[in-house]
Amino acid sequence: MVSSMLSAIPEFVTRGLQIAGGFIVVVGYAMVLRMMGVKYLMPFFFLGFLAGGYLDFSLLAFGGVGVIIALIYIPAQSAVA
């Protein structure tokens, strides 16, 4: 059933999705390079790589943890300022 649904999708749509997937990788690298220049984000940068090396999480789990940290960190920063 799934293969019949996938074969019904036109070739230009699947090719466009492949190209868009490549852009997502480039945008991710650009975000990491941009973040490396911001000093107050460096602990998150290194903790993320450390956690990625030692924990067996999926990318979805890391994204969820990142959202939770952001939801805690952003209001805490505005309360301090």
Automatic annotation (TrEMBL):
Biological process, per Gene Ontology: phosphoenolpyruvate-dependent sugar phosphotransferase system
Subcellular location, principal: membrane
GO cellular component, one term: plasma membrane
Membrane-spanning segments: 12-32, 44-74
InterPro entries in UniProt: GatZ_KbaZ_carbometab, PTS_IIC_man
Tagged with keyword Transmembrane: yes
Bilayer disposition of the protein: Multi-pass membrane protein
Localisation: Cell membrane
Alphabetical keyword list: Cell membrane, Membrane, Phosphotransferase system, Sugar transport, Transmembrane, Transmembrane helix, Transport
Descriptive protein name: Sorbose permease IIC component
Species of provenance: Klebsiella variicola
